[in-house]
Amino acid sequence: MKSVIPEVFLIGETGINPEGMIGAMKAMGGNTALNWLAGKLGTQEIDGSIDEEINQGELLIEVAGRSCYKSYGIGLNPNVTKIRTESKDYIDNTLAKADGSIMEHGSVTFAFVNVSRTYTHELVRHRVGVAISQESLRFVRPTDLGLWLPPGTSETVRLGIEKAFKEVETIYKDVEKSVDAFNTTDFDAKKRATSLLRRMLPQGMATNIIWTANHRTLRHVLAQRTAPGAEIEIRIVFDKVGKILKERFPLIYADFTRTELPDGTGSWVPKYVKV
Questions:
Q1: Considering only CA atoms, which of 197, 198, 194 is closest in space to residue 139?
Q2: Which residues are CB-neighbours of 190 under 8 A, at least 6 positions away?
Q3: Which of 12, 71, 177, 209 has its C-alpha lying 20 to 30 A from 122's C-alpha?
Q4: Which residues neighbour 57 within 8 Å (Cβ) at sequence distance 6 or greater?
């Protein structure tokens, strides 16, 4: 048995295909849309490249939203007589109107490492707008069990849980030695045996999971899973998620306020709840 700490890594996010974006702007709004895009990119003319400092996820969401109204500039839509030129104002207004569907165009991918299967049981309840790839105990035969316990766990409880983990780990290894399939190169046989043995493993053991969610879903999950009544581990993890999102996507999460709770974690509450 080993002690572990849950970790959060942002490993991917939605990007833009510059050539396709330029073509789409030209097709949807001609020079007006192209000039709008150039302004967002901070350049006089578009050469097919995207500056690394441009937040591509937020830009994609704004492009999608403006396509609904042809609001890249005055003159494209006779019904539009004024537009919000600043991205901050545009996205804030979108959130205020609860036009959350455009938030689904951008997504991010996190690696949650050394989280418990207790945590993943909670996480996979969120199914809309997500993709999940979890370390499989049908294929992966653990060599040791990782354990994380919440801060403030009493010494008596900690020792009891650690004892239970060590006993399970010992029994697992003893049973493992008796399985003939593990001494062969037959992967299917080893898979069946591994699947059988996993039934004795505790749900508090550490695991890894890759989780992708669009921003509409993320806003909901961030608020729900950092609420004071949320399970402690998922609240700790999503407090870290909130800090990453607030820094990486300042416009999409501008309305979120973090309030520190007595245990040191943060509760993230949005101004616009229904998006």
A1: 194
A2: 141, 181, 182, 184
A3: 12
A4: 13, 14, 15, 106, 107, 108, 215, 249, 252
Q: Is 158 within the bounds of a domain?
A: no
Q: What's the total number of domains in the chain?
A: 1
CA gap 122, 124 in Å, rounded: 6
Q: How confident is the model at residue 46 (pLDDT cuts 50, 70, 90)?
A: low
Q: How much is the average pLDDT of 241-248?
A: 98
Domain membership of residue 37 as a residue range: 15-104
**Cα–Cα distance between 31 and 26 in angstroms, integer?**
6
CA distance 128 to 123: 12
| Prediction pTM value | 0.93
Distance between CA atoms of residues 84 and 87, nearest Å: 8
Residue 10 lies in a domain: no
